[in-house]
């Protein structure tokens, strides 16, 4: 599920970061999160574990990491890729610390199983920042993510309005072992139930797997050929297989064609923007890959400098909230349609 949901120019980013480093409060709010690293060494090396390599969104995030590290003047101890396996995340964290990492930037897709490892790292004075996902348990210095419930809410409202409150919709649910999958699914369901009771939603579990989504859609189109809408919780993995199947079925048609299926996605990758321009999908919620990398590394640096975050509005257009096990920097994520798809401020239009 961003600075102002955009990619800023290099000079603006540098100025904003310099201001942020001096403006961030060192006052404790009494949170139960991991304590900042002792010694105040903001120049320590940061270890980065990437969550997967089979998603266009996460590949974009991976490309932003070295560029943002250079802008921030931080050293990278190393980069690993856990390939969507929690045991790989755990072993990679150990490996990065062995390579000299004094802080870790991770994105665990299974938010339930990472807790004990986070507590272990906290006991060793290694602060951890989690990007995109909020660990259910375990001490974490900062979570950098957008409001994922807003993703489901925005997708619901867009589909509901486009369909006039009637019809059948397929929802590709992300893994429910992930806080993101749960947040998006729960918010989408609540919104549909309350605001659009005339829409029937078919919830299709996918575990963030494009092949599973494609198979589920193929089955659903066979049993319910009058499907009118699709909600894809991750365009980075669902876009291509969905468009391929709709093309095979003769349903990949312009919005003015009665057979058009209204599609709203989540991610904001360039491929989604191209699909919006072509009329193949109708909207997406732009998840800030650039700001995930930027502020993930920024908070790692703050942690190593001994800074304790303070809840409230940030100086980069987000809101910092206190969690039972740390803090969260909630970055904004805009809905993108044909009306604003060419906005140069969107990271998906700037590349990585």
UniProtKB/TrEMBL annotation:
Family: Belongs to the bacterial solute-binding protein 2 family.
GO molecular function: carbohydrate binding
Domain Periplasmic binding protein: 46-306
Span of the signal peptide: 1-25
GO terms under cellular component: cell envelope
Location(s), subcellular: Cell envelope
Keywords: Signal, Sugar transport, Transport
Family matches, as PANTHER family: D-ALLOSE-BINDING PERIPLASMIC PROTEIN-RELATED
Signal as UniProt keyword: yes
SUPFAM superfamilies reported for this sequence: Periplasmic binding protein-like I
Any Pfam family: Peripla_BP_4
Keyword presence, Transport: yes
Listed name of the protein: Simple sugar transport system substrate-binding protein/ribose transport system substrate-binding protein
